[in-house]
Amino acid sequence: MDAVIVTGAAGALGHAVVAEFLAAGRPVVALDRPGDRLDALGKQDGVHPVAADLSARAAVQAAFAEVDALPVTPTALVGLAGGFAPAALADVDEDHLDGLWRSNFGSALWTAQAAAPRFAARGGGAIVTVGSRTAVSGRAPLAHATSKAAVVRLTSVLADELRADHIRVNAVLPSTIDTPANRKWMSPEQAARAVAPAAVAKVIVFLCGPDAAPISGAAIPVYGDA
Questions:
Q1: Alpha carbons 41 and 46: distance in angstroms, whole number
Q2: Structural domains of the chain, ranges and CATH numbers in brackets
Q3: Who is most buried in 35, 151, 209, 219, counting CB within 10 A?
Q4: Which residues pair with 221 in a beta bridge?
């Protein structure tokens, strides 16, 4: 079966997405920052780890050159890489803004740019980005929400641009995901309503599969009860 590139693969959602693809019989190229978590993930059968700074275009291009040398053929990209940092209008500064735009929007843009010509040469493929509920509605940390809103708009622009290459591009919009990091600040009531990473992963795997062939340019809410 064709492989899937998953960025941000060493995170909590990344682990769930990798597990779901492996259960479906699809090998995974796991891209993330170098470190113990990526090393541990790479020890699983069917996982091919590649370390990279996904917010930098040159680093992404170099990482995809490494992917080209692997014994798998990726035809899907799942862009989970990104960051979060709360700040209201008065608290946003250049470093805060630049960091979130590079980690959220930059990583999505540079990996799509690298993947698209490769998928087109293979006859098509699928790209799934991750926005957020706050990208489209409600109160939100300013820089994070606007960087995620840019990811959602990037998704629709790429869906139009890449349609002729038979590359589908869709976004999922999670609300609060039930991760160890989020449980540090969530109340028990919030945790009970948060969306399980495995539930988000199932939607992502569907969007990369043949049953989602008619779907491109969608921004799919994955809110649960949160």
A1: 10
A2: 3-222 (3.40.50.720)
A3: 151
A4: 173
Q: Rounded to whole angstroms, how far apart are CA atoms 187 and 198?
A: 21
From residue 97, alpha-carbon distances to 83, 91, 103, 159, 192 in Å are 11, 10, 10, 26, 31
Segment 64-116, tens digit of pLDDT: 999 999 999 999 999 999 887 778 888 888 888 888 899 999 999 999 999 99
In tens, the pLDDT along 44-64 reads 999 999 999 999 999 999 999
Q: Coil, strand, or helix at residue 213?
A: coil
Q: Please count the other Cβ atoms lying within 10 Å of the Cβ belonging to residue 118.
A: 17
Alpha helices in the chain (DSSP H): 12-23, 36-41, 57-68, 94-100, 107-121, 142-162, 180-183, 188-193, 197-207
Number of Cβ within 10 Å of residue 80's Cβ equals 28
Residue 147: which residues within 8 A CB-CB, separation 6 or more?
100, 101, 103, 104, 105
